[in-house]
Amino acid sequence: MQIAINGRTGDSGILKYFKQVTSLLKKHGIHILVSKDFGNYLKDISENALEGIKVYDGRDDLRNAKFMISMGGDGTLLETVTHIGSLMTPILGINTGRLGFLASTPKENIENAIDMLLNSQYSIENRSLLHLESESEIFGNQRFALNEIAITKKDTSSMIVVHTYIDGEYLNSYWSDGLIVATPTGSTGYSLSCGGPVVMPESKNFIITPISPHNLNVRPLVVSDNSVISFEIEGRAKNFLVSLDSRSFTVDDSIEMAVRRESFHCNLIKLEGINFLNTLRQKLNWGLDLRN
Question: Is 177 known to sit in a ligand binding site?
Fold first, then answer.
């Protein structure tokens, strides 16, 4: 069996957790692959970190991997999704970062998590992805996002206008700092910080959330994920920023874009005893009474 690992670079503290994970996998005869960038970082801080471990450098190297382990925070897991793409290899997120909505396995629980993984004590959650359509070459063949697609202003303090259509029907012209289209998974990310609703992961929806809208009566909108959402952008500046999760490109006002559900999805591993409602209460402190 092959298991691949991608991890957060720039945090030397991750080395001990990486060694713990790989030691447990090696005891079970698992063949381990590590992403090129993460592997190079580990070798910089420890010469023998990759002893007996191969490095993968592209999606083709991952075709035989049964699982992918993401070590870091939610940002690392979002990066890991781009490594897998249409392979849809199930991902176990080990949280060595901060919040950890997606990377929901605590680093203190690594031994138990690996044991549950290898003993099939888990379920798979299918998380929908967004796909960006455009005649522009932005994002190459990585035109998908697990959390959100965001259109934001870039070079000026002035607002931009995002003319928005659903299945070709005019919805609204958002005078704002930008616009987010989020998946249910992304409802607890950027969209939430802009006033968007929390949506259950299995919901078949997109959330359209304006960023600091000029008209205060404009509110987030939940639509079917069978919808195609298209945009035209204008503003005093001619350059704008388009982001897919943590990846971004600068575009000009001639660009036309549309968003739909991606043809493939992301598979997240949910270990027994971990569920979304518990995560909500823990991460957002719902029901916490600071008076007591």
Answer: yes
What is the spatial distance between Cα 75 and Cα 65, in angstroms, rounded to a whole number?
22
CATH 3.40.50.10330 for domain 2-121+272-284: yes
Distance CA 83, CA 103 (A): 16
The domain ranges of the chain are 2-121+272-284, 130-263
pLDDT tens across the length of the chain (292 residues)? 999 999 999 888 899 999 999 999 999 999 999 999 999 999 999 888 899 899 999 999 999 999 999 999 999 999 999 999 999 999 999 998 776 778 888 899 999 999 999 999 999 999 999 999 998 889 988 999 999 999 999 877 789 999 999 999 999 999 999 999 999 999 999 999 999 999 999 999 999 999 999 988 999 999 999 999 999 999 888 889 999 998 999 998 888 899 999 999 999 999 987 778 877 787 777 777 767 6
Q: What is the spatial distance between Cα 291 and Cα 12, in angstroms, rounded to a whole number?
A: 38
CB neighbour burial string for 196-222, b if at least 16 within 10 angstroms, e if fewer: bbebebebebbbbbbbebeeeeeebbb
Has 190 been labeled as part of a binding site?
yes
User: Does the annotation count 225 as an active-site position?
Assistant: no
Could you tell me which CATH class the domain 130-263 is placed in?
mainly beta
Confidence (pTM): 0.92
Of the residues 74, 225, 245, 289, only one is catalytic, namely: 74
Contacts of 216 (CB under 8 A, 6+ apart): none
Contact 118, 28 (CB under 8 A): yes
- Report d(CA 130, CA 186) in Å as an integer: 10
Is residue 75 marked as binding? yes
192 annotated ligand binder: yes
